[in-house]
Amino acid sequence: MDDSSLTWDDGALVTIDQRGLPHEVRELRLTTVDQVIDAITTLAIRGAPAIGIAGAFGVVIATRAHTTVVDAATQADDEHGCGAAEQVGQRSAAVSRESVRAGLSGGGVVDVAAVEAEADRIAAARPTAVNLAWAVERVRARIPEGADAVLAETLGMLAEDGRVNLAAATHAADLVQQLCGDRPLRLLTHCNTGRLATSAVGTAIGALRVLHERGAVTDVIVDETRPLLQGARLTAWELAEAGIPHRLTIDSAAAWAMATGQVDAVLVGADRITANGDVANKIGTFGLALAARHHGLPFIVVAPESTRDTAMATGAQIVVEQRAAAEVTGFGGVEAAPAGTAVFNPAFDVTPADLVTAVVTENGVVYRNADTFAGNGRAASSAS
Ligand code: MRU
């Protein structure tokens, strides 16, 4: 559907710095683990699937940085017990003989323990979206095989992401039309779930794009998404780029848009979906779900399977990231609140499963709760 927003170029992870959008489209070239972690924590790269893929590229960078190139003769010696492993072990007292031995691969010696430590640091950069830990875990298994193997796994993940998002988006579009009927739709979305937040297509925005291509969208209400304005800065930019009709509103107007009959369904993404169907997503999502429930509107969550954390029983266990006070006390360098004002700034909230009409992934509808929806298309509540 579109080009990848994350690419690998000659040892660098290349992407758009989302902090500059929409007014400045600047390229970011990341070549160190610290740069990748900084990009994730400062939201230069953001959105659950995107930070997962970026984290995996971070492990590629770490593996390259902790690989010692050895020549063929030295490698042959090592097979007889007196080669590269010992030499590298001598060079760095901190490198255990076992970890180096485990990483001897393809002409290079990987310090597996050092890369594992970097992988841990990357996975901890943001705690709420499970995609980051999931992606780092997936490539971690390839570290002993060397950087090329980690890169191959990461590029595979990148290629999968667009396909998976398109499948989830198409299933979600089908569901919206099934629930709302074959009529022009007015939809509401929150935060940014488009190609910037993934690598391509997007999840909830992907569904908006599929519906738009079917000629089914008359209006999308875009929440600005305080405090960092992912809706105003990124979603409005992506929808304009895709030619999808939209109106930007302040977050606190969303319930009123529903009350005044301007919304047929709410579509959002997710950062973590627990086994019982609770959904962590951008702060403000819970309020939207409550308002949608009050008005009997479908509240639909679109996400890849990698966002489902079936090992976590309920949303009560989710760690909700708290962010800096400065994000709330002002914007763009302009202070709004009195100096020293105490702040509550959770980046996410958790919507209880009983407010979620459906969770849709590339596998189709994986959770459904008809009680939330007053319209047609009712079905029994179920989770799988
Ligand atoms: O803090 P952010 O901007 O990374 O939060 C992003 C969201 O909450 C998205 O809705 C979620 O990651 C899904 S992106 C497909």
Automatic annotation (TrEMBL):
It comes from the Bacteria. Its cofactor is Zn(2+). Binds 1 zinc ion per subunit. It comes from Nocardia coubleae. Substrate binds at R46, G47, A48, R126, Q230, N281, K282. Its EC number is 5.3.1.23, 4.2.1.109. One of its GO terms (biological process) is L-methionine salvage from methylthioadenosine. Catalyzes the dehydration of methylthioribulose-1-phosphate (MTRu-1-P) into 2,3-diketo-5-methylthiopentyl-1-phosphate (DK-MTP-1-P). The gene is mtnB. Keywords: Amino-acid biosynthesis, Isomerase, Lyase, Metal-binding, Methionine biosynthesis, Zinc. Belongs to the EIF-2B alpha/beta/delta subunits family. MtnA subfamily. It catalyses: 5-(methylsulfanyl)-alpha-D-ribose 1-phosphate = 5-(methylsulfanyl)-D-ribulose 1-phosphate; 5-(methylsulfanyl)-D-ribulose 1-phosphate = 5-methylsulfanyl-2,3-dioxopentyl phosphate + H2O. GO terms for cellular component: cytoplasm. GO terms for molecular function: methylthioribulose 1-phosphate dehydratase activity; S-methyl-5-thioribose-1-phosphate isomerase activity; zinc ion binding. The active site is at D271. This is Multifunctional fusion protein. Pathway: Amino-acid biosynthesis; L-methionine biosynthesis via salvage pathway; L-methionine from S-methyl-5-thio-alpha-D-ribose 1-phosphate: step 2/6; Amino-acid biosynthesis; L-methionine biosynthesis via salvage pathway; L-methionine from S-methyl-5-thio-alpha-D-ribose 1-phosphate: step 1/6. The record marks C191 as: Transition state stabilizer.
